[in-house]
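Here is one chain, start to finish.
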Amino acid sequence: MAQDVFYAKLDELMESGRGNVNIWHVGGSHVQAATLPNRIRDDIDSLTVRGDRGFLFPVRLTETNTDQSYRIQTTGEWEAPILTRPTSLRRPRYGITGFGARTSSRDASVSFKLNLDGSDRWTCESLRVLGYGSTPRAYPYIICLADTLRFEYEEQTGTYLFDLPAPTDSVLVQFCIPEGEEFVLNGLEPVSWRPGVNYFASGVNGAALTHWVDRCDDLERDLNLVRPDMAVLGVGINDSAMSAKDFKPEKFKENYRRLIAKVRRSNPECAFIFITNNDSYRYVRRGMTYNTNAEAIRTAMMELAEEFGAGVWDLYGVMGGAHTVEKWRDAGLIKADRLHFTEAGYQLVGDLFVQALIADKENR
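Its structure:
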């Protein structure tokens, strides 16, 4: 089974300190909020060899919440239509990050700092720029200001890989865009080339399966950058945000089949773990109402797991099942909206997920 292949590769890394294990975690606001994937990444790092932290994006350009564990800044004028919202702006092409920001500013730049605590935890020896220009001449638009102009344009991935002169946790990228042309930034990937577990998180507020499989035109291409050994499938809370009579389990499963097919084309041996929905409320026009579809989502994921030989981590069951969200709220683990977790709640969920993952590995 794919799970056994994944665990064997993880064991080899833990024992020898050689090689890489790649994990891709996809979801909606639970993932964009970043506390959950960051906690899972930290817990896994404590057990084995730390690799890279995955993709970065200046999410503040979308005027939504952003990952506070690193700093990323921009200059110039940018447009960043959100994947999940109606917009009058031209939508960019989206890929694995679920984000895209367009600029034609002559002074446009993006810079980041990975270690805000002064440590050397995260460094990179190369920087991959995900994006594209309005003409095939796109790649001369980019200058990586780290005393280097060396880069490689990878035709197959459509990305620009810059070699840095020394390991660093801070990089400034300047965009020198000719008048009348533009560049769309889809993300940045700091690359260290060191062995370890590389954890890539892709989350967009409000994202359902159809957003990932229908609106992210470059998702399948970008998955070849990750080639995940394990995909953590946390999409479902937004798919369920409707009345019970409107939720169609077969449509939900078919959309997941389409997503899984894209992942498998990047790595046929990828293992999959579904995370069921948390017990929750959903938004309605006049406020919030109880989401009755959590059990239907869990059943659908169980059926998909049987079909694909995947694992399921039953967050809904861990919480206690139906109508336990109030208990979690009263304990300070769920926010007042009874949908999103607090920081402490996300940290607990991340800890429990990794504990379950390790227990499953040890019990095989």
